Amino acid sequence: MDWNRDQIKQRLLVVCGGVAFYCALQNLPAVIAALGWVLGVLAPFLAGGAIAFILNVPMRAIEALLPSGKRWRTLRRPLALVLTLAAMAGVVALAVGVISPGVGEAVRSITGQLPAALQRTQERLAELQTLLPQLQSLAENINFDWRGLSQKAMTLLQSWGSGLVSSGGGLIGGVVSGVSTFVIGLIFSFYVLLQKERLGRQGRQVLYALLPEAWADKTLAVLRLSGRTFSSFLSGQCVEAVILGSLFIVSMTVLRMPYALLVGVLIALTALIPVVGAFIGCIVGALLIAVTNPWQALGFIVLFLVIQQIEGNLIYPHVVGSSVGLPSIWVLAAVTLGGKLMGVAGMLFFIPLCSVLYTLFRGFVKARLTARKIPAGKWNDPS
Fold it and tell me: Given its phi and psi angles, is residue 144 left (phi above 0), alpha (psi -120 to 50 degrees) or beta?
């Protein structure tokens, strides 16, 4: 059988890829270490890309509202970026302004109830004194090696102290590294946002220079679909968080529960993390309410479970699912699968990822049905 040059290249690529994959499996620890080092080097730029993608969602909407004349051509992009940063700072300041007074009020409430708590503690100690003779006789019948126990406690404390000192140094180094990565990534994101058309044009040039034209077209189509889907997901997630926080503010105000505004804002902020985020706000809210009235805290937990069921089965799948073009059942499946595989990050990432895969697979199925000339009556619902 005669092989042309393209077939020989394809088979050589397959053989080389198989050899490289086998060598990677044989040296898996070294490969993982090398990937970790590469990710560490690229971390600021990956973080910058993520920040730029998030900021681009509101920035694009703000830029569309600005004048488009010749005099504004050079000012629209920087002004849109400044307004976006100002809007984000305003949201953070508003959240802090709502949360800080509530936290201060909670601290004052806890401080005011400390005397009553101490009084109750003294009463319990007085009750224990009546049982002291029985406890003393019971203790006399139990033999403890107090010296050995104290030595073990001292050894444990020394090991904890040395571990705390060493982990403290690592913690400081991690904080410094994280802050520097964020600052570099933020600066890089500004450059990406201000030059996104130019960078996009350069990326397309690289794709068409390195890949066959058909492959480059398909790659760009997938990238555009992914960009639209992830942007819609961010918008839908923010809308869902606002709806959930508003439901808690209104329902807690109607039921005359304390800290309604504070708890609603906390739940709205934590609800940006799909599914599990609202539970974090629930724990904080229940602890705050329990200081004032434990029974109301129990009622708040019941209220949270009711609203969470409504949000998880009705609001979230429809709001987020409609924004990414994913049916409700697949939204729930994506959240569950992402949480099992990658935790919170998986919950955030798998919904838009599954939406992209769902859209691509749906297009593939329709193309195959058209190519095979399958009548629509065979796969449509019977009338």
Answer: beta
Nearest to 299 by CA among 262, 243, 252, 249: 252
Q: How far apart are CA 351 and CA 362, in angstroms?
A: 16
CA gap 297, 294 in Å, rounded: 5
* Per-residue pLDDT at 120: 67
Which tokens sit at 342?
């990658």
| Separation CA 292–CA 381 (nearest Å) | 57
Q: Write the DSSP string, 92-150.
A: HHHHHHHHHHHHHHHHHHHHHHHHHHHHHHHHHHHHHHHTHHHHHHHHHT----HHHHH
Please tell me the predicted confidence (pLDDT) of residue 162: 62
On whether the CB atoms of residues 334 and 323 are closer than 8 A, the answer is no
Confidence (pTM): 0.65
Q: Which domain holds residue 189?
A: 29-113+174-194
Check if the beta carbon of residue 91 is closer than 8 Å to that of residue 58.
no
pLDDT digits (tens, 9 = 90+) for 149-165: 566 666 766 666 666 55
In a domain, 328, yes or no: yes
Residue 88 counted as domain residue: yes
pLDDT band of 147, cuts 50, 70, 90 = low
291 and 180 in a common domain: no
- CB atoms closer than 10 angstroms to residue 42: 11
- Helix, strand, coil percent content, the chain, rounded in steps of 5: 90, 0, 10
The answer to whether 247 and 307 are in contact (CB under 8 A) is yes
For the range 61-64, what are the long-range contacts, defined as Cβ-Cβ under 8 Å and sequence gap of 24 or more? Answer: 62/87
